[in-house]
Structures are given as C-alpha cells and as structure tokens.
Amino acid sequence: MEHLRDPHTKVYNAGGHLFSISDLLHSITDPEYMVDGLPRISDYHFKVGEPIRYRLDSGLVSIPGGEALTKEAFEGLIFPLLVPDRIADVQAGGPVDIDCGYEFVGDEETYNFRLNVFMDRHGPAATMRMLPPKPPSIERVGFPYDDIWEDLVNLKQGLVLISGITGSGKSTTISSILNYINETRADRIITLEDPIEYLYESKQAMISQREVGVHVESFARGLRSALREDPDLIFVGEIRDVETAALAISAAETGHLVFSTVHTRDAIGSVTRLIDMFPTGRERELTTQLSMNLRTVVSQKLVPLASGQGRVVAMEVLRNVSGVGNLIRSGKIHQLYSTMETKGSEGMLTMEQALLDLVNEGKITPENAIAYANREEIADRL
User: Cα(153)–Cα(307) distance, rounded to whole angstroms?
Assistant: First the structure.
C-alpha cells in the first residue's frame, strides 16, 4: 500500500516509458504547451480501460503511445492525491463522488489542481483541472472593455453573477476580480468554495477562505455564518439550490456585495435559472428582489483562437441599467436580449456581438463564431 501514497511512483506506460502522476502534472508546464506564459493544457482525464487524455485548448488528446489505463495503474496515479478515507471509498467499489484539491510543487511555481473522482460502469475514473499558481491580473482575463471590470471592482453592494458552462473560465474571472479588490480596498472578504481553488493572502483587504465540507457544511450554512462576520464582500462558489439563492439575494439586499457563479450558457439564462429555483407563488417576490439587487451578469465562453493555439474568452454582459430592472420585475425576461443589443453604450454586450468583435479583430474564425454563438442569426452578420 505504501507505493500507492507516493506521487513519484512510475506506473503508467506510454510509448515505452513509465510515468508517475508527478511526471504527468509536470508536463503541463512544458514550453511546447504554453502560450504567453499560460498553460494550454487545462485538464487530465483518467478512465480505466482507456488511454489517459488531456484537454489541449478545446479538444481531448491522448498521451502519445499511452496504453489503456488499468485499475492498478489508476490507483498508482490517483491514490497519492487522496487521504486514506477517500482511498478506502474508491476501493470499496460503491458509489463515489469525491471533490478535493491537490497542490503540486513544480520547478518554479506551486500549482493547485481540482480533482474529481467518480465511478462509471468500467470502474474508477477521475478528472484533474489545473488552476494557475496565482490569480491572473484582471487586465489579462480578456474583458472586452476596461469599463466592465472597472465597474465590477468598484461596486459596494448588490449581486454579481458570473455564468458559463464547466470549463468556461468562470473561476479565473472571479479570482481576478477578488484579487484586485484584495489589493486595492480595505474590505473584509469571506469566500465559500467547493473546493478552494485559488489561494489568496490578505493585502489591503482581510480575506478568509472557507471550503464546503471542510470548514462549513454547505454554501447556505456558510452564507448564514458570513452575515454575522461583518463582511463587505461574500463570494459564493456556486448557487445550486433555492436556499443558497435566497440567502445570496438577501445578503445583497442588506447592503453586502455578493459574487457567485451559475452554470448557464448565457446571461438571460442566469436570471431565469434563479427565478425557476423558487416555488410557484414566490416569483413576484423574487423578481422584485432581483430587479433591485442584481447588478451585473457576465456570461462567458472560451473560444479557440484562429491560430489553433490557445483560446480567448468571449463575454456577454447584462447590467441592471435603466429599464432592465422593470423587465425583470414584470417578468418580461424575453425582452432582455433586445435591450442588451440596443444599450451597448451603457456597458451591455450580447455574446453574438462579442464573437463578431473577435472575428473582426482576427482572433477567431467565422466558423467558430457560429459554433459558439447562442443564436443562429449571427451567420447573417458575418
């Protein structure tokens, strides 16, 4: 069993060479897989019976010469990243859904990974996502206009949502905003995360990071606790249920600044997701609260660059400017898109407009603009 706790044990055969989990994670920083100092590899995928694959830009690639992963090799790669109790859960062979973090010390930097271990019909499987060693500067994230992020970091209260599908860069965007505020404002910041991803040291602000399942039972319990801890800013890792949604909106209503993420493909879907969480009969109450306390929704996608090396973020922005609150309060959510189209001068941007701008700048191809758009009519504008 001791060899299962050593991340340097070489157990996976690829092209006639044996690799350890440390070897695989170290390869992410190979210059071949870097663009402008940033890794192009974002995830490793492990599944018994198939070669190990990694996500390079937007596609999955098998390790050259990699053999099908055996159960023994899987354990030799993944078990060094888990605590003994979690190892026992996997070995038991029953239902498993493990979320945790892993810190890897490279040659020059320490990298944090988000690890998910689960079972499928062939046995154990796992995915590891790399998080950059430190939050990126907000200027490097890729906001289409500086006015957008400048408005976000200067907010004092209200609810801000960052939305997108898994792997769209939500964590990176949020971390850049939190880090900027940490460096420039004497605020009290409480984060509730599952798991903790980027690590912050208090600078101008005082920041406390709490992990669900380790430091607090749930996002909802953490939110209740945070409201007694004199926060200026609360970051809720994800709004997953009606209780968390209600508490996040109430926190914004009582004068706090609340950031959170939701898994939706566009800004309007983020608004409807919150509304749909609530039972029939409470829609009026919720839409009224949202109309007054929602400040901004940023929905984003990572689109392959025209060069074929790397990805660029495309952002849709919905701001609660004049008229938007009234549409939310009256339930006319379907009219928000046309409002976003016509109020670009007030900091609004549709995903289609963002993609067209990237095409005009030569950063992405027209074909990828169509593929990543939310609305088919973008083809008529290319």
Answer: 32
Give the DSSP letter of residue 88.
Answer: H
Q: Which domains does the chain have, with CATH numbers?
A: 2-131 (3.30.450.90), 138-381 (3.40.50.300)
Strand order of the sheet with strand 59-62?
Answer: 59-62, 53-56, 41-47, 123-131, 110-120, 97-105
Long-range contacts of 25-33 (CB under 8 A, 24+ apart): 25/104, 25/106, 25/111, 25/113, 25/128, 25/130, 26/104, 26/106, 26/107, 28/111, 28/130, 29/106, 29/107, 29/109, 29/111
Please write the tens of the pLDDT for every residue from 318-341.
Answer: 999 989 999 999 999 999 999 999
